[in-house]
Design a protein that fits this description.
The chain is 36% helix and 12% strand. It is α/β, with parallel strands linked by helices.
Length: 658
């Protein structure tokens, strides 16, 4: 512990409602005026820093004392026009932190403690991730193996100059961890080692590992053996000899085992088995199964004492006569889906778009309120849309729209996904290519240069698949309305690559006039349709005519679903608030007067037709904005218009009028 005296003491003073966050350095103390009290996470952070200083004494830790607390990132963005979750710059302020992204702190602390601020950021992150042993909460080698299997790289030299952190950092960290498993080499020494590394042994190790991504369905066929327990301690699974038996089974050729935990009852007519569920705290308070008791008790303790001020003895006494009703109500109101679980259909979601002004973007605290409002309306999912752009439909170069803090940055996507998951909402990541001018992805066609275009799109999709993995997205949409590309053979390789990088279900968003010809639906988990079907060519169409047009559109989707054996999700569904939007739902006309009742009628027709199809099992309404104060009288936004009442009815949270 002798390195701990090198750690300077940090004191945080937060003044609520301050307009700006200004740090003052006073000797060994740093005083930060901020908008959010750090009491919820500061204690954990201090413990983590002390633990890591003792764990890696040879690396000469220093304390990351430069921190700027600002929950919505607005102040820092106005001052710097760039945002990082957490960073350190010696004795100068250069970072931003949010209590909504606690997973970012551990990596940032290790980066600040053990790497020089002047070194390249990606290399510093990789070194810190190697010490942590994880990236984005996931095992490093598992992440690197996914990239290797996905064909992202074949050798270290393929990624050593890569500027995408979601590619570079976990791969570099995995290699660093392999080269120095005891973490005795300094950052400078490791950096020098990497310049001429022979990566063959590391690659052999990665390729020999057979990690299945979390949530991936088991691969068939399977040839396994039941592995039973001999109930004597020296012969049980706990004995070292049982490992040798398992190794022998592998040599025989088995590729799986079945483990059999038992429950017992006295006689075939008995009704008594130890229960593994609970209705009240008293049901588990004497439970001897730690997998039942520990998380339930811990959840109740955390609810009773969220600031962790009570001692063990005091809490134990409190639990003897606790009234658990409020805690149970809170648990029952939450709808957390375990990570890796395949999304449950139907899904009733909304596209959550970024207003590209910093005080109105996803980074602003007010966007959280808009997401909470969507949850109250009844939506159970959101779709996030990160963009890349190309100049002209014949261009082959794509660039991500992530250069400005108010754009669709990884930070914005991560923050929005975290907020949605905390509200019990699922998340679809739906990348989109914007062709300028016009923005119409259906017209993208580089002619003989398709291979070059796909090479650029591949880099874009790699990033989005890894981002989906990082933010625990429930769905990934691998493309949007790229109609003229869909018969290209490159899609087969992209789908296989995406499966290796992202372990959740995937779809593709085909345009309404092309989805019936999309050739790769059987390789995906759902048919995705951007459903801008014309419901009628008559500007004066009656409700009956609109319902007939909606039924025809739903019938077309149902036929495709039956032919490929996949459910359908309307990856976009929207109508502008202008006269007769059912004629050309894809066209937004700002020069026309507002007609919100026509928007309402179009939504009523299509949403009313969806229950007629057993295969059309989800939709994402196009679209809502991150700014809760945005007014859009003639656009797609349903908020504050009659259409939202119709949508709420079909979300199940309001009665539907006949």
């Amino acid at each position: 512990m002798k390195n701990l005296e090198k750690i300077r003491r940090v004191t945080f003073f937060c003044i609520l409602h301050s307009a700006f966050c200004i740090p003052h350095s006073l000797g060994n103390e740093l005083i930060i005026h901020g908008a959010t009290p750090p009491s919820g996470w500061l204690h954990h952070r201090e413990e983590f820093i002390h633990l890591q200083a003792a764990r890696f004494p040879a690396l000469h830790p220093r304390l990351p004392v430069v921190v700027h607390l600002d929950p919505d990132f607005v102040t820092a963005a106005r001052e710097r026009r760039s945002i990082e979750v957490v960073d350190d710059c010696g004795d100068a302020l250069c970072g931003v932190a949010s209590y909504e992204l606690p997973e970012a702190w551990d990596l940032s602390d290790l980066r600040a403690m053990f790497t020089p601020a002047a070194a390249p950021r990606l290399e510093r992150d990789a070194f810190a991730a190697a010490l942590l042993g994880a990236y984005g909460g996931e095992d490093l080698d598992g992440w690197a193996l996914a990239e290797l299997r996905g064909g992202v790289f074949q050798h270290w030299r393929d990624v050593s100059s890569e500027d995408d952190p979601l590619v570079f950092v976990p791969v570099a960290a995995s290699l660093i961890r392999f080269l120095d498993p005891q973490h005795t080499m300094s950052f400078a020494a490791m950096r020098k080692r990497l310049e001429n590394v022979d990566d063959r042994q590391w690659l052999r190790k990665l390729r020999s590992e057979k990690r299945a991504p979390r949530g991936e369905r088991i691969q068939l066929p399977v040839r396994g053996a039941t592995f039973s327990v001999v109930n004597r301690i020296e012969r049980s699974i706990l004995a070292d000899s049982s490992r040798k038996e398992m190794e022998r089974l592998r040599q025989v050729g088995y590729d799986a085992i079945s483990l059999v935990p038992f429950a017992g009852q006295r006689g075939s007519g008995s009704t008594e088995l130890r229960r593994c569920v609970f209705q009240h705290w008293r049901d588990v308070s004497s439970e001897d199964d730690p997998l039942v008791f520990v998380p339930v008790a811990a959840s109740l303790i955390r609810f009773l004492d969220p600031q962790h001020t009570m001692s063990f003895a005091a809490m134990r006494k409190r639990l003897e006569n606790v009234d658990d009703r409020q805690w149970l109500r809170k648990l029952r109101s939450e709808k957390r889906a375990p990570r890796g679980e395949r999304i449950q259909l139907p899904v009733r979601g909304a596209t959550f778009s970024v207003v590209n002004r910093i005080e109105r973007s996803i980074l602003a605290d007010s966007s959280r309120k808009e997401m909470e409002r969507l949850r109250q309306v009844g939506y159970d999912a959101i779709s996030l849309v990160p963009f890349a752009g190309q100049r002209g439909s014949g261009s082959t170069e794509l660039r991500r729209f992530a250069g400005h803090p108010a754009s669709e940055t990884d930070l914005a996507m991560s923050l929005a996904a975290g907020r949605a998951h905390r509200l019990g909402m699922r998340v679809m990541l739906k990348p989109h290519v914007w062709s300028w001018p016009g923005g119409d992805a259906t017209r993208i066609d580089p002619g003989s240069r398709w291979p070059t275009w796909f090479a650029s799109y591949r880099r874009f999709l790699i990033h989005q698949a890894l981002l989906a993995r990082l933010i625990r997205a429930d769905w990934l949409c691998i493309g949007t309305e790229l109609t003229r590309s869909e018969r290209r053979p490159e899609w087969n390789e992209l789908i296989a690559m995406t499966r290796a990088l992202f372990d959740g279900p995937i779809t593709y968003a085909a345009n309404f006039d092309a989805f019936e010809a999309t050739p790769f639906w059987r390789q995906l988990d759902a048919v995705g349709v951007d459903a801008y079907f014309p419901l009628s060519r008559n500007p004066q169409a009656t409700d009956a005519e609109l319902r007939m047009g909606a039924a025809e559109a739903v019938g077309r989707m149902q036929r495709v679903a039956r032919s490929v054996g996949k459910p359908v999700i309307l990856t976009e569904l929207g109508y502008p608030s202008t006269a007769a939007p059912w004629m050309e739902p894809w066209r937004e006309r700002r020069d026309l007067p507002a007609a919100p009742r026509d928007q309402e009628r179009a939504f009523a027709a299509i949403l009313g037709a969806l229950p007629e199809s057993p295969s059309v099992l989800g939709f994402m309404i196009w679209k809502y904005e991150s700014d809760p104060n945005l007014s859009d009288p003639t656009g797609y936004l349903p908020k504050g218009k009659p259409a939202e009442s119709v949508i709420a009815c079909h979300l199940g949270h309001k009665p539907c009028s006949q």
